[in-house]
Amino acid sequence: MSATVTPDLVRRALLRGRVRADPIHRPPWALAEVEFLDACTGCRACIERCPEQVLVRGAGGYPEFDPKRGECTFCGECADACTARALDRAVGQPPWHWMASVGADCLARNGVVCVSCRDHCPEQAIGFRPVVGVATPQIDNARCTGCGACVGVCPTAAIELRDAAACEAGP
Ligand code: SF4
Ligand code: SF4
Ligand code: SF4
């Protein structure tokens, strides 16, 4: 008889980093991962309150931000809905530490004119630096909020949100 996967089993696997290798993007103002998993009840209130519908139910029933669905405007509705304080704006920390990173599949980096990400960035954090041939996107780390607006609009899904410290350290 096969074992049933319960939220608790998934939680333990998440804590051990065994379920996924790619980063999990929790909703903004989430506590550090271990504390978040302890506090979150999986009630879905944050998901239901998000006016942008960018939060989804992820592994184990815990909420995740899916930038492919759109932009987080940092309105704070999700944190305000979280009575368990798994999302906590009161601590005065930035909402998260994600930053956009442009990968090798970028059309412009492959010689095809495309400025879709720049046109959708609300922070004007994407500049196109003319190099030889087609201008390519450069992220201004000081401006990028990790809002995700550029992720879903990229025709080749070349943009991901990475830990800001890793982005500042370079590719
Ligand atoms: S801050 Fe607002 S837009 Fe962002 S995930 Fe929370 S509810 Fe959605
Ligand atoms: S509102 Fe809070 S407790 Fe409920 S699912 Fe969202 S993060 Fe978890
Ligand atoms: S994630 Fe950064 S670069 Fe992308 S749209 Fe948001 S602020 Fe602009």
TrEMBL record:
Keyword terms, alphabetized: 4Fe-4S, Cytoplasm, Iron, Iron-sulfur, Metal-binding, Repeat
Keyword Iron-sulfur (UniProt): yes
Cellular localisation: Cytoplasm
InterPro entries: 4Fe4S_Fe-S-bd, 4Fe4S_Fe_S_CS, Fe-S_Ferredoxin, NapF
Residue sites binding [4Fe-4S] cluster 1 per the record: C40, C43, C46, C50
Signal peptide, first to last residue: none
Reported cofactor(s): [4Fe-4S] cluster
Classification via Pfam families: Fer4_7 (PF12838), Fer4_9 (PF13187)
Residues that bind [4Fe-4S] cluster 3: C144, C147, C150, C154
PROSITE patterns: 4FE4S_FER_1, 4FE4S_FER_2
Domain of life of the native organism: Bacteria
Domain 4Fe-4S ferredoxin-type residues, every copy: 30-60, 61-92, 135-164
Binding site for [4Fe-4S] cluster 2: C72, C75, C78, C82
HAMAP family: NapF
Function noted in UniProt: Could be involved in the maturation of NapA, the catalytic subunit of the periplasmic nitrate reductase, before its export into the periplasm.
Family: Belongs to the NapF family.
SUBUNIT field: Interacts with the cytoplasmic NapA precursor.
Protein name from the UniProt record: Ferredoxin-type protein NapF
Organism in which the protein naturally occurs: Lysobacter cavernae
Gene, per the UniProt record: napF
